[in-house]
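Extended Data, record N-acetyltransferase domain-containing protein
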Amino acid sequence: MSHSQQQIEIWTERLLLRGAQESDLEAFCAWFRDPQAMQFWSTAPHTTTAQTKKFLDSMIASPYNGVLDFTVCLNSDGASSSSDSEEGNLIVIGKAGLWDGEEIGFIFNRDYWRKGYAFEALDAIIRHLWDNHLDVGVVKADVDPRNRASLNLLRRLGFVVVGEAKSTFETHIGWCDSVYLEARRPVSVE
């Protein structure tokens, strides 16, 4: 992927996916402080705003911000395009995307779980990737096997298990195992 790509916005039926901004800090704090939302994250829940600001600043500085990695905003007025909505009608509910250009990651405010937003956001990101980034043919995921919700979501998105490993990462909940999944670019039939 070229690191000089311009940030984009992806609109879905209910969501806007856009690059992270400094104004997202309060929303990011909501889920990064939530022990349930952070259960399977690579770090413990944040205890200070400074921790979350450091994460957000690194996301903003990343060449993937707004290109392959996005802040997920819910359109609270039901409009489905930028011409129909104003930024004031958008609620930041999560982040999702290829944070390193290869591996998909996502986290959402728990108030918005089980409403289809994660599927809608990730499906849009993967479709965008397949349609616009010819140099990326595989998207990877590394999930703790206890994180059934994420595993089920990724399978619904077409990811398949390609491997497993024990004690791959030590986090705030101890040593974690890994289930490795991949989604491959569909082969086009001409």
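Summary. The beta strands are 10-11, 15-18, 69-75, 90-98, 104-108, 138-143, 160-171, 174-184.
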